[in-house]
Amino acid sequence: MTETLSALALWNVGVFVVYAWDKAAARRAAWRIPERTLLTCALLAGCAGAWLAVLLLRHKSAKPSFLARLALVTILNVAAVAAALYLLAREGA
Q: How buried is residue 74: exposed, middle or buried, by Cβ count under 10 Å (0-12/13-18/19+)?
């Protein structure tokens, strides 16, 4: 369990770095990371890192369509975790 949480934390740090990289590219008017890629990183259990980047770096915070999709991805993540915990608890019963 500890290894899983450590891997999850490390992944979210990586997602935060990807968002920070894109924010820096936006400031330089350089090549940007596609929104689809940013959202995919969040979808693959990186919601915490994505939201931290939105809140701390103000990255994509003025884009309601992106925030709505990130919220949907977060809901999907929470539902997936809840389903997994339910199934694990059911197996243990």
A: middle
